[in-house]
Specification:
This protein is of the alpha+beta class. It has one domain: Bira Bifunctional Protein, Domain 2 (BirA Bifunctional Protein, domain 2). Helices cover 20% and strands 21% of the residues. The chain contains 3 helices and 10 strands; from the N terminus they run αβββββαββββαβ. It has a 6-stranded antiparallel sheet with strand order 1-5-9-8-7-6. A 4-stranded mixed sheet has the order 4-2-3-10, with no helix packed on it. Helix 2 packs across helix 3. It is globular, with a radius of gyration of 17 Å.
């Protein structure tokens, strides 16, 4: 799914009047794209924005630059933390716990790194987190490298961490596929946050109206596209 469509879905869900009662988890896969958090620095990008092989978006999440692409599972929880716990550190640790449970189900010794956000396997970072929270409602989320082409990370310093490599699950489980991991992530998410899984109909989400989010932002570093202030679909 194109990144701007996923962002439009999130904006649509966050704007719903019933958001106080209903939690949602979007599990998606994007075409190749780079995203930067709202305060991310260009020091961690080794190319000029106008020369990027893939689209670049700056969005209102925390964290530095990262890459999304095929073979990576991206999760966007839309949760009202008023009904969970109003603590962003707790929320990040819960997201890490979701992914650690999944990796443990495959017999992989997933770990956190002190002072950092994400999930590591044997010294390689396999999952990144970046969130946005407004009025205690969450957007953005996590990205789990299942079987992506890691070359997409070669031109950036992922998450601004220069001294630790990026890895993927299929380096340890060569036959692992994205469709196999999706239900495990959903089940783990429900268990960690104490939720009941209900499969949603994608037809209930907006199918258009997102094109206005991809206009070039010429004022910011050449032709970088800025999605930090999107209009709801």
């Amino acid at each position: 799914m194109p990144y701007p469509v996923a962002l439009a879905w999130q904006e649509h869900l966050v704007s719903q009047p019933g958001r106080a009662q209903e939690d949602v988890l979007l599990l998606l896969e994007h075409p190749p794209v780079y995203t930067l958090g709202q305060a991310a620095r260009w020091d961690f990008v080794s190319f000029c924005p106008g020369q990027s092989p893939w689209p670049i978006y700056r969005v209102r999440r925390g964290g530095e630059v990262t890459y999304h692409g095929p073979g990576q599972l991206v999760g966007y929880p839309i949760l009202n933390l008023t009904f969970h716990r109003q603590d962003l550190h707790w929320y990040l640790r819960q997201l890490e716990a979701v992914l650690i449970r999944v990796l443990q189900a495959y017999g992989l010794a997933a770990q956190r790194q002190p002072g950092l956000t994400g999930v590591w396997l044997y010294g390689a970072k396999v999952a990144a987190l970046g969130i946005q929270v407004k009025h205690w409602v969450t957007m953005h989320g996590f990205a789990l490298n299942v079987c992506p082409d890691l070359a997409g990370f070669a031109s950036i310093v992922p998450c601004g961490i220069a001294d630790q490599p990026v890895g993927s699950l299929n380096q340890f489980l060569p036959r692992l596929t994205l469709p196999e991991v999706i239900p495990l992530v959903a089940e783990s998410f429900a268990a960690v946050f104490g939720l009941k899984l209900v499969l949603a109909d994608p037809a209930d989400l907006p199918q258009g109206g997102w094109q206005n989010l991809v206009e070039p932002e010429t004022e910011f570093k050449d032709r970088q596209r800025d999605l930090s202030s999107p209009q709801p679909p």
